[in-house]
Amino acid sequence: xxxxxxxxxxxxxxxxxxxxxxxxxxxxxxxxxxxxxxxxxxxxxxxxxxxxxxxxxxxxxxxxxxxxxxxxxxxxxxxxxxxxxxxxxxxxxxxxxxxxxxxxxxxxxxxxxxxxxxxxxxxxxxxxxxxxxxxxxxxxxxxxxxxxxxxxxxxxxxxxxxxxxxxxxxxxxxxxxxxxxxxxxxxxxxxxxxxxxxxxxxxxxxxxxxxxxxxxxxxxxxxxxxxxxxxx
Length: 232
Fold this sequence. Notes:
The protein has helices spanning 21-29, 45-57, 71-78, 101-107, 131-135, 141-149, 186-196, 210-213, 215-228; strands at 6-10, 35-38, 63-68, 84-90, 116-118, 124-126, 173-178, 200-204. The chain is built from 9 helices and 8 strands. It is globular, with a radius of gyration of 16 Å.
């Protein structure tokens, strides 16, 4: 197997693989060529973990999983495959066994909780007129507008899907906290990060969309994980 890692990026709720656009460009600038971005259906944690595992299994070599938001729950569930060498969490859920993103959010409701609304088909949306202030207050109006209009709504039931065997208990991990996050309470992020005992925690003065507003700092953390794993 090749020693050079494949970085697999896993998006969260209300977005798709394209949310990683700035991170992908920055990773390529720094010489990372083995890049994948999963497009998850957001229909259940089991479905999303299965889709992510499929992509991991296509890689002949070490994989570093990077999850944003709910994507953190996905990499927690899917990261048990033997070629996964590490987990990087970006303003993300990191549930323990039996925990769900919804349960964690209820314990410390995020500031923008009331801006999430269901539709008649059981999908949850961030109100378009509240998207920027809720998800991406540190992005430009144009960038936030595109995210708001192209948001990918999850099935509401996905919030209640619990992790079975958290991969962070057996894999090295790194965590980025967004101190101005309105979609996951920053203290919830700190609590999840601290109990993981990751190799590093960084805090950024950023919104939930830190992957788009602070891509350089996110790539710094990914790059440090690669070095720490001896894969650079």
